[in-house]
Design goal:
The complex is a heterodimer of chains A (517) and B (308).
Chain A lengths: L1 H20 L48 H15 L3 H10 L3 H16 L30 H29 L4 H4 L18 H16 L4 H18 L4 H23 L10 H13 L30 H6 L11 H15 L3 H9 L8 H17 L3 H29 L4 H4 L18 H16 L4 H17 L5 H24 L5
Helix pairs in contact in A: 3-8, 4-5, 4-14, 5-7, 5-9, 5-14, 5-15, 7-8, 7-9, 13-18, 14-15, 14-17, 15-17, 15-19, 17-18, 17-19, 18-19
Chain B lengths: L10 H10 L13 E13 L1 E4 L2 E4 L6 E15 L2 E14 L8 E3 L1 E15 L2 E14 L18 E12 L2 E12 L2 E2 L5 E2 L3 E2 L3 E2 L3 E12 L3 E13 L17 E12 L6 E14 L5 E12 L9
Antiparallel strand pairs in B: 1-4, 1-19, 2-3, 4-5, 5-6, 5-7, 7-8, 8-9, 9-10, 10-15, 11-14, 12-13, 15-16, 16-17, 17-18, 18-19
Classes of the chains: A mainly alpha (517), B mainly beta (308).
Chain lengths: 517, 308
């Protein structure tokens, strides 16, 4: 008996010790990204075709002082004193930002999307209050960064960053002022060096864009954004890659270019996308008049459909006539045998989902409190771009192609959703219980499928050796919505087809922008 | 994108807590060579929950119910040393909305209970008891569907120190517990807490518990009132109208009662029953729990000891 006791107790003790030894540290992919070391400088990127800028020098940048005079020497000394005073957290910040400005700001955008992706709770009278851009810190916080909102945020930020960096690279080549670590050998280079001229700073250009775009998109986060900008710019000084005047010129350029995009955003009709209960009722009546069962919110109390006029928002890569032309065909009539069969299929998925189906549904769920499906595709893209060793301007170009396609996908999908106003499976058969959240808008077509089709098309163009992977991911994201029991097969299949077509327009832009691959 | 905000769970913690209550949280031991084992049924439900510190209901969930059936047992290695186990099967379900409840084998646990000190203090008897336990998921359930996930998914180590005083059959038992929790893996590659994490792995804050029991006990029966608390050492609050998440700061204070009667009709048959109610909480449902169980006592080897 004593042996038995000591065996049991030592086994238990061993388990406990093992647990205690277990670190709570979590390996975070984003923290392990290496310092950016572009395979090519893309020094001629100033000639690439911009999205809104009419010419790369539309925003003027005055010529910098030559790297010889006393003013420049003072700036070199600033770097040296910053480097001498670096503490552990400064080094950490330097390492973090060295992975790349476009990458890090894309990640920070994803973080804000996740933070704000929360639908407002209803008031006591059952009415859902609307977030107010002019009062973003009062509940309900502005914005509710749902998938269309998120797609739009990623698109504007990426497109503005791209145009600003094309302008930045134009001036880099024009003024050709070398980086401080190349001008003065006593300046330490704490990041990988490059022959790319440092005036204006590409990092500061991105930061300037972010300041203006975040004011518009996440107006309650000014303090957070300002802190990040300060940390970012300081890390560039400390790295020895930029002097103060590189940063100042880049920051001003970024802000000025971004204002063009802010002006577009204010007029792109997203401000009117929320719609109203009156509009929703009219859509419902029109659907009934067509002999179809109309969508009804399944929330309690009933919540107005999400962004019912997002389908009218201005697209990036094709015009409004094309939007109508590529609209998916009408879904199977809610009275048709095909509809009943598709409903039955989802009922069977819902009845007893396998663990693998639940895994897939949750892997792609990207619901409340997450960076949304467009954010998921940005994460996938960024991990791949890190391995491709792109210049900052090419990073921006790739993300602009991806994210303008994702916003166009949101517009095309929302256009279809509120054109057809099709009910969700749970509305048609309340035995169909779901393992992911039930989105509060019509079923046809699937947003995830449209986003994923568009993203897979663009990424396959940008990184063709992974084409089959992207296609497989898109198909899995699409079918995950059937496993989740919130979409019919037609929603998913037609969504993928439409998404692929939407992505194709962005690929056309990419093929014509002069950047090549 | 999803429309349902949820209540909180951690119910599961409560659930296992009530289940364990019979063996790991009281001062009782088995006689040497005795195995006491049997099924237990537990019913836990709530319709109000604390979103952070804000108490609310949610018509998209209605009443969230967790039921469990478990097999538990305790074996007396010696008069003052026992091992025990618990194997629960859990079923969750909301009364409203479209969410699918989940079911499956939850977390099995194995404990060692040791009473090194028994001391007579006048007419009172004082005991000091130490417990070590481990619990781990018995199935690969999803941890990302709170409040419908059947468990939290971490492998836990429990260390508990207990003091028991009994005089004239009236007793008081107090215990403190530290629960070490391992990291948990989700089915997704990124998640947001108060910042983004690009990993499928979640660091789980540890938990402390205290438990106070006052009552009357004889060789054959126990009747007691219970006050207990669990406090998560870290974690974050659910944001407004958000889903709950496994690493939320889940706290609860509960009051309850517990009864046990041996030799019910048949000599080896024991009946257990009890319940509790959450009087304060954070990121958890305000739950009411009721449970009842049967146990059969088997004697291995020579029966040469009187129990307790």
């Amino acid at each position: 008996m004593p042996q038995k006791i000591s065996f049991t107790s030592s086994a238990l003790l061993a388990c406990l010790l093992l647990l205690a030894a277990c670190s709570k540290e979590v390996a975070d992919v984003s923290q392990q990204f290496p310092a950016l070391q572009p395979a090519r400088t893309d020094i001629n990127a100033g000639t690439w075709k911009t999205i809104l800028l009419t010419a790369p020098d539309e925003v003027a940048v005055a010529a910098p002082a030559a790297p010889t005079g006393p003013d420049y020497t003072a700036q070199i000394n600033e770097i040296k004193s910053v480097q001498a005073a670096m503490k552990a957290n400064d080094k950490e910040a330097l390492q973090y930002w060295s992975a790349g400005a476009v990458l890090r700001w894309n990640e920070l955008t994803r973080q804000l999307v996740a933070k704000y992706n929360l639908p407002p709770v209803n008031n006591a009278d059952g009415v859902y209050p609307a977030p107010d851009a002019n009062n973003p810190l009062a509940y309900p916080y502005f914005p509710f960064s749902n998938p269309p909102y998120a797609a739009r945020a990623y698109a504007y930020i990426s497109a503005a960053t791209y145009d600003a960096l094309v302008a930045c690279y134009h001036y880099k080549k024009l003024y050709n002022r070398a980086a401080p670590y190349n001008v003065n050998t006593t300046v330490q280079a704490l990041v990988p060096t490059s022959d790319l001229p440092s005036f204006p700073s590409e990092d500061a250009t991105v930061a300037g864009v972010m300041w203006e775009m975040m004011k518009l998109l996440f107006p309650g986060e000014q303090a957070f954004v300002q802190n990040k900008i300060n940390e970012h710019l300081q890390s560039r000084l400390a790295s020895g890659a930029n002097v103060r005047s590189d940063l100042d010129a880049g920051y001003a350029l970024g802000r000025a270019v971004a204002l063009k995009f802010v002006a577009r955003a204010r007029a792109d009709r997203a401000g009117q996308a929320a719609g109203s209960l009156l509009i929703e009722d009219a859509m419902r009546l029109a659907t009934i008049a067509r002999g179809e069962v109309p969508w009804i919110s399944q929330e309690s109390p009933k919540r107005p459909g999400m962004l019912m006029h997002f389908g009218k928002v201005r697209t990036w890569n094709f015009d409004s006539a094309t939007l109508v032309a590529i609209r998916p065909p009408a879904p199977p009539s809610t009275n048709s045998p095909q509809f009943k069969q598709e409903l039955e299929e989802i009922y069977n998925y819902a009845k007893n989902p396998s663990r693998e189906q639940i895994r897939i549904a949750q892997f792609w769920a990207d619901g409340v409190g997450t960076y949304t499906p467009p954010g998921h595709w940005n994460a996938i893209a960024c991990e791949d771009f890190v391995g491709m060793q792109l210049s900052e301007v090419r990073w921006a170009r790739n993300l602009a192609l991806l994210n303008t396609a994702l916003m166009d996908a949101a517009i095309a999908c929302w256009d279809a959703k509120y054109t057809y106003f099709n009910p969700r499976p749970f509305q048609m058969d309340n035995r169909i219980k779901t393992v992911v959240g039930l989105p509060n808008f019509p079923s046809y077509t699937s947003g995830h499928s449209t986003f994923s089709g568009a993203a897979a098309s663009v990424l396959s163009y940008l990184n063709s050796k992974r084409q089959s992977d992207y296609d497989a991911m898109a198909r899995e994201a699409s079918v995950s919505r059937m496993y989740g029991a919130i979409h019919y097969r037609s929603d998913c299949e037609q969504g993928l087809v439409c998404g692929n077509r939407v992505g194709g327009f962005s690929v056309e832009r990419g093929k014509a922008d002069g950047a090549g691959l | 994108m999803q429309h349902i905000r949820m209540g909180i769970l951690c119910l599961l913690l409560c659930a296992t807590h009530s289940l364990r209550a019979q063996m790991d949280i009281d001062a009782l031991f088995m006689g040497k060579g005795q195995l006491c084992t049997g099924p237990m049924y537990m019913h836990n439900s709530w319709n109000n929950y604390w979103e952070g510190t804000l108490k609310r209901d949610n018509p998209n969930l209605g009443t969230v119910t967790t039921q469990s059936i478990s097999l538990m047992g305790m074996y007396g290695i010696r008069k003052n040393i026992a091992v025990f186990y618990n194997l629960p099967y859990v079923i969750t379900n909301p009364s409203a909305g479209q969410w699918k409840g989940q079911r499956g084998f939850q977390d099995g646990s194995l404990w060692l209970k040791y009473k090194p000190v028994t001391k007579q203090l006048g007419k009172a008897q004082l005991s000091v008891i130490g417990l070590l336990g481990v619990s781990t998921p018995l199935s690969n359930y999803s941890k990302d569907m709170l409040p419908f996930s059947i468990g939290m998914g971490s492998t836990n180590g429990h260390a508990r120190l207990m003091v028991d005083v009994i005089r004239n059959k009236w007793f008081a038992t107090a215990s403190m517990t530290y629960v070490l929790r391992s990291n948990v893996q989700l089915d997704r590659t990124a998640y947001y807490t108060t910042q983004m994490h690009y990993s499928n792995e979640v660091a789980m804050p540890d938990v402390t518990q205290w438990n106070l029991r006052l009552g009357y006990r004889t060789n054959k029966m126990v009747a007691e009132a219970v006050l207990d608390n669990m406090t998560t050492q870290g974690g974050f609050d659910m944001t407004r109208n958000n889903m709950p998440f496994i690493s939320n700061r889940m706290n609860a204070t509960r009051v309850g009662v517990h009864f046990k009667q041996e030799e019910v009709g048949l000599k080896p048959l024991t009946v257990l029953a009890g319940g509790n109610y959450t009087i304060a909480g954070r990121n958890m449902g305000q739950s009411t729990t009721l449970y009842a169980g049967l146990a059969w006592i088997f004697q291995f080897g020579k029966n040469n000891n009187t129990k307790k």
